What we know:
The protein is α/β, with parallel strands linked by helices. The chain has helices at about 5-10, 25-35, 50-65, 95-110, 135-140, 150-160, 235-250, 255-265, 275, 300-325, 330-335, 335-340, 380-385, 385-400; strands at about 15-20, 40-45, 85, 120, 140-145, 165, 175-180, 180-185, 195-200, 200-210, 215-220, 220-225, 295, 350, 365. It is built from 14 helices and 15 strands. It is globular and about 70 Å long.
Amino acid sequence: MEQPKELLEFLQGRRNSLRVFKSGPGSQALLAQSLLAQGRSVVLVSAGAREHRELAALLRLFLECGRRPGQEPDAEAPPWERSWTELPPYLPKRPEAQEWAERWAALFALAYGPRPRAVLLSADNLLPRWPQPELLRANTLTLTRGEELSPELIREQAALWGYAARPLVSAPGEMAARGDILDIFAPGYGLPLRLEFFGDTLEGLRLFDPASQRSRADLAEAVLLPVAPGLYTGEHGAAAKAWWRKLKTAGEMGPAEEQALLESAERADGQVWPGLFWPNAVGLEAHLPPDAVWILASATDLRARLEEHVFAWREFLRREQESTGRRWPVQFLLRPEESARQAFRDKRQLVFEDLTLGRDREGAELQEKGLSAFADLFWKPEDQRRPWTALTTALRDWSHSRRQTVLSFRSERSR
């Protein structure tokens, strides 16, 4: 892609921020891939869940296209073995093991994965309060084939991290024990783990297909992470109860809310919003690479989207109060919208904006165009009558005039 002078200056480190116009998700993902190839970590922020899905697909595509000859693809590797990390959208709802399995895998990748790293997240992730990064050091279990490790201790630890016992595993956060075999669906793996013991020796460690029960890959080592935002290991449970007493005494929540949290503690399921479990919960930026370049996609809408997310959370909590009678304090679940924007305020950033009449347009202009219909590209009547011929002819012509042509479709149906 031929790059404007202003963008080249930014990529060379001669600018701290740059506004970019006439672009779209393709340009944003391609620039993230270019920065990563230069050895710079990138945080790519999308406005919402739909934009997140599109950017994620494009970023994976460009990272795959940019692999060096002989370099293994990393799409199927655990997040901490890849060069990119994806955080799922943080929607207003009760915590769930499957979503927190994705989040803990992403947080572990941010703490211990390779650098530089590309991080893709939707703006709603900047509002909630998160567990502190140092919790990962004491709440990670590495399993190595051949080591001495009691299966009972693994099960006890997993239960404290939010895993649920099931007859068979089918989703992240579940475990099942049968004799000397322990199946556990851990964060970061596309398939569940099967642990085979002889006494207290871990003799077999593999990934398996839960539908057919057939082995898919033998592993020498695997990492076990939590699947709940609240962890009852060590003194954390006692600290959380003291925090709830403090909130009740201060009038931030009532006896009904404290009782519901205490009942959750008795079950040790840990499915409590981080801001209500951890007294020292932090913003997501505490987990992100401090030297990263921030790419703000659809920055024109970012502030409005954050305000919409805050409103959606307040509406969700209002409905929760109507259905359960419990009034959860939103200020301990979320940060103010202004605090969320502080996460990238002083960072190096590429700000992608729409051109607005009457506003200063100083910045770089790219040439990405959005196509909503086949006729936007192939407008001749004969192309409309024979679309497949028109497309294959164009692809052949483009192969002579372009280094690479990538076709990206919004859905499987459109493809």
